[in-house]
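2024-03-11 09:14:02 INFO worker-7 job=invfold-0412 stage=load source=structure_tokens
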């Protein structure tokens, strides 16, 4: 030892500290790296990303390599620091203790905390560089890693700890996907982000939430005179109409309006039989079907319109493929005359908003930023009747949450118009 220059030992000590810093920084960077970004780079042929993913698929071996190397480097650094202290100051116990204490401080600050901060700040950049050095080291250290892991697995077996499945760790739950989309910042345009979030909600939204209610269905009644049918067809707004006999629960088919209009141009006397010949079989949907499931059913059955029925077979409403698409990407079709437009649902300067009783609570929550409960009634009328337990016969106000709802008009045993008032400090 006396023949070795102290500066050589100091240089070797500095090198070991840098190696320790490298392993600490590489470990943090590899564990914090965005695997989705790495996979994207790997698909484009980035060799560093491919190597990094290869290492991350062998996390147990990777961590073993880093920890073994870091432990050996720190042990060698301790030996060198002790040797330097002895070489310069002799076998003074106090000097050796101070030298080891200084080395521990240097290792903590410059070889642990600072490198790990850097690794966590630039995970992808550092992991791409570090992986090119760690892979050949793993190949060289394979026997040592196997030997150490043999005892590790034995110890874990005694503790009854089962190693995590690598494939399972890579799976992402819907909640995690939602979080990724929400935290994407400017990487995903706001409109695209909204569509993705709506897709995640499809499993929790039922057909009943987006259907056209029974009272608003435009349908043909074959029990009325042909003249009335002709008048309705010439003014109807939809491409397809449900057809019933006598009352709405007796739907017998779906009429394509374009085919019926062709009949109106014929000179022959029209009869109910002519309309019956044009009917297609109606498609019925249970009211508790989820929107996502129904989208799949529409695709499998080549349907675009379904009649929603309850457990007793009574018609509750109607839903179309367009309704489901609008639930995902927003309104895009022309509004039906008399239907409430979504952009008209907003607070005025006084903090008030007039709504029809048939307005869906989900739409109100979205447009007005409210939190009306959605696990019960689906409309304002239903919510008010549930709260009041009766049909009001005079103007009445009710506070739900921090919003006051005032009944403006009641007609035909239903609340037709209400006024919402938000608190001044809303």
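2024-03-11 09:14:09 INFO worker-7 stage=emit residues=426
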């Amino acid at each position: 030892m006396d023949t070795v220059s102290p500066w050589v030992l100091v240089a070797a000590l500095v090198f070991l500290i840098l190696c320790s810093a490298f392993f600490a920084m590489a470990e943090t960077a590899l564990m914090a790296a965005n695997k989705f970004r790495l996979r994207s780079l790997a698909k484009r042929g980035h060799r560093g990303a491919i190597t990094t993913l290869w290492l991350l698929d062998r996390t147990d071996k990777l961590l073993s390599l880093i920890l073994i190397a870091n432990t050996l480097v720190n042990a060698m650094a301790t030996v060198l620091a002790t040797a330097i202290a002895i070489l310069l100051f002799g076998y003074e116990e106090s000097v050796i203790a101070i030298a080891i204490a200084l080395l521990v401080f240097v290792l903590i600050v410059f070889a642990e905390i600072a490198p790990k901060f850097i690794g966590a700040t630039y995970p992808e950049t550092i992991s791409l560089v570090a992986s090119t050095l760690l892979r050949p080291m793993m190949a060289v250290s394979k026997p040592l890693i196997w030997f150490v892991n043999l005892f590790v697995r034995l110890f874990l077996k005694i503790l009854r700890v089962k190693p995590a499945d690598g494939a399972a760790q890579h799976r992402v739950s819907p909640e995690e996907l939602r979080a990724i989309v929400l935290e994407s910042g400017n990487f995903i345009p706001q409109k695209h982000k909204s569509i993705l979030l709506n897709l995640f909600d499809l499993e929790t939204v039922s057909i009943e939430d987006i259907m056209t209610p029974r009272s608003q269905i435009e349908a043909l009644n074959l029990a009325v005179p042909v003249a009335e049918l002709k008048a309705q067809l010439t003014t109807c707004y939809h491409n397809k109409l449900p057809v019933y006999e006598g009352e709405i629960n007796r739907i017998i088919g779906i009429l394509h309006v374009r085919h019926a209009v062709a009949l109106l141009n014929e000179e022959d006397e029209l009869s109910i039989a002519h309309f019956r010949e044009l009917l297609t079989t109606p498609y019925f949907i249970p009211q508790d079907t989820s929107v996502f499931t129904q989208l799949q059913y529409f695709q499998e059955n080549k349907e675009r319109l379904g009649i929603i029925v309850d457990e007793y077979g009574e018609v509750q409403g109607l839903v179309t493929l367009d309704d489901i698409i609008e639930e995902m990407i927003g309104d895009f079709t022309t509004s039906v005359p008399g239907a409430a437009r979504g952009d008209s649902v907003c607070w005025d300067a006084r903090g008030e908003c007039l709504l029809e009783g048939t307005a869906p609570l989900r739409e109100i929550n979205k447009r007005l930023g409210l939190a009306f409960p959605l696990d019960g009634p689906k409309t304002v009328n239903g919510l008010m009747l549930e709260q009041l337990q009766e049909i009001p016969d005079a103007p009445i106000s009710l506070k739900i949450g921090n919003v006051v709802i005032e009944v403006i008009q009641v007609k035909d045993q239903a609340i037709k118009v209400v006024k919402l008032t938000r608190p001044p400090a809303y």
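2024-03-11 09:14:09 INFO worker-7 stage=report msg="The chain has four domains: 6-166, 172-201, 207-329, 342-421."
2024-03-11 09:14:10 INFO worker-7 job finished
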